[in-house]
Amino acid sequence: MRLQVRIRVGAGRVVALARRGRKPQWRAHIEFDSTADLILSLEELAHLPGVQPGRARLAMEIDKPHLQLRRLGNLPPVGGRDLKRLVSEQARRFFRADGNALLTDAEWIDVGEQNDRVALAAAVDESLVEGLADAAGAAGFTVDSITARQRTRSKYPRLDLLPQRNRSARRRRQTQRAVVLLGLGLMAWLAIGVWQALDLAAERARVARELAKLQAPADALVELRHQLTLANSAVDAVDNTAAGRGHVMTLLAAVVAALPDSGYVDEFSLGEDGKLRLGGVARRARRVASRLEEVGFASASVEAEPLTIRIDGRTWERFTIAVEGKP
């Protein structure tokens, strides 16, 4: 963590406080009699413990008598940037210059008694501030800010008295810092994305391995289920065959019971619709149909006219009887 040094330039004395994070490191008081001694005091700070050239950061406050603070009223109602430019262009009107160029800053702070806006403005000798900034840079400090010291810091905005070239350097540092942070953020997101992709690939590989382990048992279960289905089908076929055989035997028994002693059946056909067709010979075909209904069939009818034949001098009828129902 970089060393942060805050110094206050007052009347003949420089007060410096160094911190690293929130932890104080050292405090220094340096007396000076002239501007040259003031610039040399910054070089003395560079030799204090923990100050590394190029890594220590410096925030400076300018106090009276080097600083001039004014409350300005009766100003045109302009924006903040225009107010700064107005005060800078008319610095000799608002401040004592003594023939020197002034570095100024201004901010609107409140409303006056006549509803006029009041500005707080600060000015300092530009050559003094530039000399301090150059001396701090030569001593190895990075100058972050040079501001006007105010007794009521929480009430009024900070007035920036950093020279223009140092402001440009500060903006470049802030831009570089933002670019670095953006690059680090992008790298972090990229790293997270790569890690997530690798983790997802590893998880997919693990799932694939688990599925491969379960494939053989799954195939065995599928084959077992197929065999069980075949076994059930075989059992059903056996049951159906047994039932069908029993049904046929019942039909045959009923047909035999219905035939007279002199008759016989030489054709027996059971259709898919459950109808039974009998072909045979008897002395009287209609008598056979009546006997079939007597033994329990729903209906029995002689199809077409029976064919009369003679066997051994006797008259017989060849018949075809359609039978419905179960005995």
Explained architecture:
The chain is α+β, with helices and mostly antiparallel strands. The protein has two domains: 4-162, 2-Layer Sandwich (Nucleotidyltransferase, domain 5), CATH 3.30.420; 254-324, Gyrase A, domain 2. The protein has six helices and 13 strands. It has helices at 35-45, 80-89, 91-94, 126-138, 164-258, 285-294; strands at 4-9, 13-20, 23-31, 56-62, 67-72, 102-111, 117-125, 141-148, 264-270, 276-282, 299-302, 307-311, 314-324. The strands form three sheets. Strands 3-2-1-4-8 form a five-stranded mixed β-sheet. Strands 9, 10, 11, 12 and 13 form a five-stranded antiparallel β-sheet that branches. The chain has a three-stranded antiparallel β-sheet with strand order 5-7-6. The longest helix is centred in the middle third of the chain and has 95 residues, at 164-258. The radius of gyration is 59 Å and the shape is rod-shaped. The relative contact order is 0.07.
